[in-house]
Amino acid sequence: MGMMKFAVTPGFEVGGTIFKPEQLALLGSIIGENAKIELTNFKQLYVEMEVERLEEVKRKLSETGLEIYPVGFVTKSLIPCNFCRGAEDAGLEIAQKLNRMIAGISTPSPLKIGYAGCALGTSEPLLKDIGVVKMRDKFDMYIGGEPKSLKPAFAELFVTGVDAEQMMDIVQRLITYFQNNGKNKEKFSKFIGRISIEKLRNTVAS
């Protein structure tokens, strides 16, 4: 009997990434006794369960408002802050739109994208592959954060002062360029080092 994984999130709102009790109760009750649930460090639950009931379970979970994503070498769902400055000031709607655009795209290695609604950066955007920080009505973008290493590194400033539409376009261009030019299993930070941040900036953000 085969097993397969998928990722689950409740989406996000002011206050953070919040599961409702009934969503967790349903998840625990329908995935089966052989299933496993893993908490990731990027605000997703990984569910491993029997293939035979996979589509039925995904459908029932989706009906409660949970979002279902693929696992593996893909862009992860957006890792947001808690929007403590409120939905409008922190750009909740923009973050949700960005998430819909980027989540689940096949990439040479897993890609984590963080969003912060202000310079407090509670979602730790400088430790993500791509970090977006809202600065009043504009956005600064950072790339190449590397937390999982004996030599962790902060992301470098990539572009500054772009509007929401430009920001989303640049994120999409970065993902596409990584898809087309990254080596299999190459980390995004290594990819940037090989290509150079200057060439990426000239190719993707000019």
From TrEMBL:
Residues 91-204 form the Nitrite/sulphite reductase 4Fe-4S domain. It comes from the Bacteria. Keywords: Heme, Iron, Iron-sulfur, Metal-binding, Oxidoreductase. This is Nitrite reductase. It comes from Paenibacillus chondroitinus.
